User: Fold this.
Amino acid sequence: MVAQVRMIRPEKANSMIPEFWKELPEIVNDLSDQGEARVIVISAEGRHFCSGMDLSVFDGDNSVTMGSSKFPSRTRASFRSTALRLQRSFSCMEESRLPVLVAIQGACVGGGIDMISAADLRYATSDAYFCIAEINIGMTADVGTLQRMPKLVPEGVVRELAYTGRKMNAAEGKDRGFINEVFETHEELLAAVNEVAKEIASKSPMAIWGTKQSMNFSRDHSVADGLEYIATWNAAMFDMDDMGEAFVASSDRRNAEFPNHLRNRSDI
Assistant:
């Protein structure tokens, strides 16, 4: 099954309100834990994919405290705790057993780039553009872009985008390796992304999980450490039944049928 997750505030360019930061990790973690889905596709309604963090995040009970305070050290500690919490809202995408694909149209700004940088695969329409906008409001991006994007795009390119706040269009994003493919319309984008998702979902869930885990680990470690990791992973997690099914299905000229992930227990 391909799970569809959609942002549906098109009138506000799908800005990330306080509820978003709580609901996204709940949805992603639940889909990963339940075991029925094999791929997650994140898309958005309207003209723009995401305009970044909504100003309401800085107001009221859910706020990121920024103003002066009678207790400045406590204000700074609160800000740090909030930043770490927001970061975890996107780290869940990397930690999920399931590959996460994103379909991007129009603007993808600020927090939007933080989010898609944590995804496995990124696809866009030709009118899409990307902007590390925090620098334009006197702020350093702090929810994942500066840590993840340099692993996807040459560091010099990321530095230029982060220092200048300029827009990178979809064509440049594909040329830089940030975007997998570009499509003319939103309809073509969604159709193509879902085809890729269905192809991934047809593979062994255990093999896909192991591939994702190994690539994420290798990204952050040496080649030697990565080789050690995958040897240990396969020694513990390699599924001979899935391999047997793959060979038999190929011989029988039919699609392989693999069992879903086992459900993760939440009562322990």
